Amino acid sequence: MRIANLAGRAVLLTEGGAIDVHKASGGALSCDPQELFDHWEETRPALAALSGEPLMYAAEELRAPVPRPRQIFAIGVNYRDHADEADLQAASTDAPPPTFTKFASSLTGPVAHVKLPEGWVDWEVELVVVIGRGGHRIAAESAWDHVAGLTVGQDLSERLTQWSGPSPQQFSLGKSYPGFAPTGPAVVTLDEIPDPADLRISCTLNGETMQDSRTSEMIFDVPALIARLSAITTLLPGDLIFTGTPAGIGATRNPPRFLTAGDELVSTIEHLGSLRTTFS
């Protein structure tokens, strides 16, 4: 299934268009996309059985597929090549990756226009995990059973705010300006993905490739991240986990390169789709 948010209504995306979840279920399922994930174990079987007449839609009508998660986790330095380019210690068993949050007010959809704040705004394409079944102390061996699906994310970052002040720095604030968390175009369930542990991940800026890697290059993979996070805090249905970015960010280029008005950023993960973000 490809579960999306079409102008505020929950839909299933198909090759022929979008099926309205509430209408196709005869009112049994909520029209609110967030409700589907907040009650995932109850709604998934009904979603899988839905059929209906798909309607055409414009990509610009799609919004963040999980619009109001109760928790958003974000992982830093989780690709070795990104650690190398940033001259940072790579994550390891003895030095796990830094964890921060992106505030929910920064979420936006797959086709979005973002007003740039003052400073140095950078890009970070990321695989985003959507939790379906919550839990505390989830074993890595069963972690995929807790995943509702995967989607594409951008961890946009204003570096001056992020790096300001003494340690610890202001990661969460620097990554939570309005529109700094594009997600979508849909939450894709694992049965739609040949190998959810190995997906090509890339982004282009004005048509030029900035990042190009595979999610199998993550140091802590999805099960390890779920196990680590849930060892400390209870994961909730509908939570999002931004899993880190590969090499190719703007801050580490020589000279550094940051987003400017008029830029177009396209973020893509195979089998999941693309985000298109423009800036002013």
Would you write up a description of this structure?
By secondary structure, the protein is of the alpha+beta class. The protein is 16% helix and 30% strand. It folds into two domains: 60 residues, no CATH class; 216 residues, Fumarylacetoacetate hydrolase, domain 2 (Alpha-Beta Complex). It is built from seven helices and 18 strands. The strands form three sheets. Strands 1, 2, 3, 4, 5, 6, 7, 10, 11, 13 and 16 form an eleven-stranded mixed beta sheet that branches. It is globular. The model has no long low-confidence stretch (mean pLDDT 94).
- Give the tally of structural domains: 2
CATH architecture of the largest domain: Alpha-Beta Complex
Which fold name is given in CATH as the topology of the largest domain?
Fumarylacetoacetate hydrolase, domain 2
Kindly report the average pLDDT value. Answer: 94
Beta-strand percentage range: 25-35%
Structural class: alpha+beta
CATH superfamily of the largest domain: Fumarylacetoacetase-like, C-terminal domain
Output the number of helix runs: 7
Q: Helical percent range? A: 10-25%
How many beta-strand runs? 18
| Morphology | globular
Order of helices and strands: EEEHHHEEHEEEEEEEHHEEEHEEE
Query: Largest sheet, described in full?
Result: 11 strands, mixed
Question: What is the CATH first-level class name of the largest domain?
Answer: Alpha Beta
Distance between the termini: 34 Å
**Rg result:** 18 Å
Uncertain parts: none
